[in-house]
Hints:
Blueprint: H1 10-19, H2 28-42, H3 58-64, H4 85-98, E1 107-111, H5 114-128, E2 133-137, H6 143-151, E3 154-158, H7 168-177, E4 183-188, H8 200-209, E5 215-220, H9 225-231, E6 244-248, E7 260-264, E8 273-275, E9 280-282, H10 291-329, E10 342-346, H11 350-355, E11 359-361, E12 364-368, H12 375-388
Parallel strand pairs: 2-3, 2-4, 4-5, 5-6
Antiparallel strand pairs: 1-7, 6-7, 8-9, 10-12, 11-12
Amino acid sequence: MTHTPTPAPARLRGLAEAADLGRTPVDVTAVLDHLVAEADTAAPTSIGFPGAVDLDHREVMARLGHRLWNNIGDPTDTGGTPHTRILEQAVIAWLADTLHMPADDRWGYVTTGGTEGNLSALHAARRRLPTARIYYSTAAHYSIPKIIEMLGARGVVVNAGPDGEMDYDHLAVRVRRHRRWPAIVVATAGTTMTEAVDDTTHIHTILDEHDVPGRHVHVDAALSGIPLALDGRLRLDDDSRIGSITVSGHKFLGVPTPCGMVLIRDSLRRESTQVTYTATLDSTVTGSRCGLAAALLWHAIATHGREGHRWRASEARHLAAYTVDKLTAAGWPAWRHPHAFTVVLPTPPAAVRAKWLLATDADVSHLICMPGITHGQIDAFVADLTEATAPGSDPGPDHPHLPRSIPRPRRASSPTAGVGTP
């Protein structure tokens, strides 16, 4: 059966035609104007995907954005120019300190995002434990099975509960079956759809009970890592026994280019290779790395500090709680984990989804109250949802007037699921 691609909307066909580099001349200004105008138009209703919009990075872009900043090699290298490795070192130290990671057993760098961070950490873990099974839940990020395939490793899928948290009984069953081999376990701090947090203490207890011959626990904390660390709810001290973590930079810190940070215990890594012609250590996945991203991360941290970012996280959570109340009062049941920016709700009618950018998985959708999202946006969304589901309205063929029930948290009183809880 031949697949016929869906035709692109007229506006996209027009942009593609204008951007065609085979045409002469190319109207560069018109193309850039189109991109900016479309992004500006979409911004007020983009509430489904996690990118903070309250931080101003224009000073960095204006002063550094006109040249190449290449942080090639290890972030501790100081040779070559121009680079921003000193800023990268400061960013990594800030994150490691915030996570209470031991000063004598830490290493990390600025990545292209959470996927590279996961790849870097799991690659380091598998080099140390080459026969390990890599356990991950069905709510883990889509990058995890992809990375396992890239590494040629054996993956073991563990069920997640309806609230997104790992099913520890099922993990125990899976570990028991594979207990002869070392275990690499991917815990998630902020799952994609519900922002659930896996309990690493419980995970270690299961590994202890089955006496696995070697372990590495990695935390994919792309969304929630920094807010939870600022609260003291996520720690990488020795008691946590967490080997590595990755966080995103373009989510909570709102950096206008995809990026992130990975931290790995230095004692769990192998030595890097010296590259002669660059005079650097080849210790990262990508080699050449974006120094501008490191500068943007540094700027976001330097201009707000820990207390400023704690306030941003608190305000976002307050807005998420307000959103749950507004939706529930409108007859549209919603919930959130107490620590979360993410609000989970039954999938709205097609008319609402056509206007509002939400993340949707079958009958469940979410919106994310990232810093910069306003009460006005939430009120407008709830008003549109109420109008689309009012008696006499036509919600479309794919949706009834009344929302279906949705899964709720198992432990509504728990602010996190115990990742590194002090």
